[in-house]
Design goal:
By secondary structure, this protein is mainly beta. It has one domain. Helices cover 11% and strands 49% of the residues. Strands 4-3-2-1-5 form a 5-stranded antiparallel β-sheet.
């Protein structure tokens, strides 16, 4: 699973960049989770940018990575992202 969105990276427009959440870790207390975010220009391409994000974790909310994608879509830099 990943999402896609046109983004700017170092002054270059990347049309339909693929954004993938990876390696989620749930914090003690199960209230927050941390996950990696990787950007590439296609599913087969190498990662050109990556970062770490934190999000609330819902123990009844299902798969942590699905929760990560849902959280990303609420952030200003990811508004308009679509599943792919």
């Amino acid at each position: 699973m990943s999402i896609k969105k046109t983004i700017e990276f170092k002054g270059i427009t990347v049309i339909d960049a693929h954004i993938t959440a990876v390696m989620s870790a749930i914090a003690m207390g199960h209230r927050m989770m941390t996950f990696g975010v990787q950007y590439c220009n296609s599913p087969e391409a190498e990662v050109f940018q990556s970062g770490i994000r934190e999000a609330p974790y819902d123990t009844d909310g299902g798969n942590p990575l699905e929760q990560a994608y849902a959280h990303l879509k609420t952030l200003p830099g990811f508004v308009g992202a679509v599943d792919c």
